[in-house]
């Protein structure tokens, strides 16, 4: 998608950019251009160099070599503020909002409005925020809400609006829909912006979104630009081959016919916690049960309650037929259950960024790698290498600080940590959010093998296609209640969407609740 009137002059030109961190080459030769009024896709695996490129364009890190021009003028931003002043604004994948400040304060930074005696004017900042929120269809946001109280999806919307409010010539959107239940709001804003002549660099692993928005895309592999391609002339398999150097192997999983007479591995009856009300379902051994729902319908409360992070108000949980009262994550592990929380915010809730991948992975298995309370290094390393192979994480990454890895490799490490517990039931919360198609395939394979070996999986996903692909049964949550239960061939995106938006409710589910 791009403005077609007038000459197609380039807004941004990037030539042979290079950036290294010691011996690690993050960007090793990237060249491309973005036209005025164009939505240009940036594609590549996790670790291909996309995040480093975004940081260079945004002024977060300096480039080692190469050149950039913006509007025909040399572009070398010294900071995020310098980039904004020159017309480049970014909505980051890992949010840059200050969660202890209000919506209004985040929109105003770095310069808060001041009143009498040069003191910060709360009223002035609130009024300015109200105008911005109204312009970008977020008038329902309260400017005085502290950002930490917002859902992850609303934080993403605020991150995007803050970038847009700077009136950029180039807007960079890094995985902007990873936590949004619908693209309608964002895509409407993008169409308005390009009509004004704004250019957009759009980074996403979701090729359906890329195709809807973008006419052209640049593919990165191993820190280098492979090609800039006309997307209408390039199919998905060819794009993947450019990204990884090989064709995409199709993933298929035969659905398991659930034996309702057998004792389920996990049984939940009439559970209420947080906004969840009277929820009941089973997760049998050898099966993958999916959970679908729009953002904020209670799915996080349900997973937190099952893992002891949120107290139960009522209801019953049974593991292998035995009633358990899960009071904490440690108690959940003793009961044979583990939630990866491959969490909504991986960097702040999942990893210890300054520790090695090895230490991050083996934290869940300290008893098996220690003697008399002392961790045995050889056991630690051997176990980490073994599990890294299971989750398709290259052995060379085991010694790296986990904060240095791409998001996809961090996700693999977190999944490895979960597997190390030896848990018989896994709770996976959006395990493939923000990872590339190759990493998704690796995670799907791990889930399949785990279920095939007799494990039970309860998985929430914001991507309906993977629920259709992976699940033997799919539950749909709406307003804190399970409103639909789909099995076998009933599991399709239209049926899930109908239930998730309140337009379909199974009588049997309602009666059981």
UniProtKB/TrEMBL annotation:
ABC transporter domain residues: 12-247, 252-504
InterPro entries: AAA+_ATPase (IPR003593), ABC_carbohydrate_import_ATPase (IPR050107), ABC_transporter-like_ATP-bd (IPR003439), ABC_transporter-like_CS (IPR017871), P-loop_NTPase (IPR027417)
Keywords noted in UniProt: ATP-binding, Cell inner membrane, Cell membrane, Membrane, Nucleotide-binding, Repeat, Sugar transport, Translocase, Transport
Record-level Gene Ontology MF annotations: ATP binding; ATP hydrolysis activity
Family annotation (Pfam families): ABC_tran (PF00005)
Keyword Cell membrane applies: yes
UniProt cross-references to SUPFAM superfamilies, sorted A to Z: P-loop containing nucleoside triphosphate hydrolases
Record-given protein name: Galactose/methyl galactoside import ATP-binding protein MglA
Species: Pararobbsia alpina
Taxon lineage: Bacteria, Pseudomonadati, Pseudomonadota, Betaproteobacteria, Burkholderiales
């Amino acid at each position: 998608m791009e403005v077609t009137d007038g000459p197609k002059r380039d807004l941004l030109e990037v030539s042979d950019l290079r950036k290294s961190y010691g011996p690690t080459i993050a960007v090793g030769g990237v060249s491309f251009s973005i036209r005025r009024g164009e939505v240009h896709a940036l594609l590549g695996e996790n670790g291909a160099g996309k995040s480093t490129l975004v940081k260079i364009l945004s002024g977060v890190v300096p480039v080692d070599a190469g050149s950039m021009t913006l509007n025909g003028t040399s572009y070398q931003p010294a900071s995020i503020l310098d980039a904004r002043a020159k017309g480049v604004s970014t909505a980051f994948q890992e949010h840059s909002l200050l969660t202890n400040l209000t919506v209004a304060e985040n929109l105003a930074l770095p310069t808060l409005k001041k009143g009498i005696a040069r003191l910060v004017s709360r009223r002035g900042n609130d009024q300015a925020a109200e105008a911005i929120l109204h312009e970008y269809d977020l008038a329902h946001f309260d400017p005085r809400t502290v950002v930490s109280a917002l859902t992850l999806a609303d934080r993403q919307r605020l991150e995007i609006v803050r970038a847009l409010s700077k009136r950029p010539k180039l807007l960079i959107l890094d995985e902007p829909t990873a936590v949004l239940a619908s693209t309608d709001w964002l895509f409407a804003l993008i169409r308005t912006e390009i009509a004004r002549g704004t250019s957009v660099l759009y980074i996403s692993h979701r090729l359906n979104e890329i195709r809807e928005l973008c006419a052209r895309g640049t593919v990165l592999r191993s820190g280098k630009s492979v090609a800039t391609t006309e997307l209408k002339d390039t199919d998905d398999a060819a794009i993947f081959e450019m990204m990884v150097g090989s064709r995409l192997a199709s993933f298929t999983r035969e659905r398991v016919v659930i034996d309702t007479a057998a004792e389920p591995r996990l049984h939940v009856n009439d559970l209420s916690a947080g906004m969840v009300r009277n929820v009941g379902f089973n997760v049998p051994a050898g099966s993958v049960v999916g959970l679908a729902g729009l953002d904020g319908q209670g799915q996080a409360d349900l997973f937190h309650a099952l893992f002891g992070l949120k107290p139960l108000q009522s209801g019953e949980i049974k593991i292998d037929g035995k009633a358990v009262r899960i009071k904490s994550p440690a108690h959940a592990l003793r009961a044979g259950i583990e939630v990866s929380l491959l969490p909504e915010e991986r960097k702040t809730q999942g990893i210890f960024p300054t520790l090695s991948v090895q230490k991050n992975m083996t934290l869940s298995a300290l008893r098996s790698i220690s003697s008399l309370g002392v961790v045995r290094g050889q056991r630690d390393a051997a176990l980490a290498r073994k599990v890294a192979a299971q989750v398709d994480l290259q052995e060379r990454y085991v010694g790296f600080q986990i904060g240095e890895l791409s998001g996809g490799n961090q996700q693999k490490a977190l999944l490895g940590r979960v597997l190390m517990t030896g848990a018989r039931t896994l709770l996976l919360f959006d395990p493939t959010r923000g990872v590339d198609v190759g990493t998704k395939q690796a995670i799907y394979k791990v889930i399949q093998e785990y279920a095939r070996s007799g494990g039970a999986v309860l998985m929430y996903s914001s991507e309906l296609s993977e629920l259709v692909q992976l699940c033997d049964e799919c539950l749909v949550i709406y307003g804190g209640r399970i409103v639909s239960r789909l099995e076998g061939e009933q599991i399709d995106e239209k049926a899930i969407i109908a239930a998730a938006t309140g337009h379909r409710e199974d009588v049997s589910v309602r009666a059981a609740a």
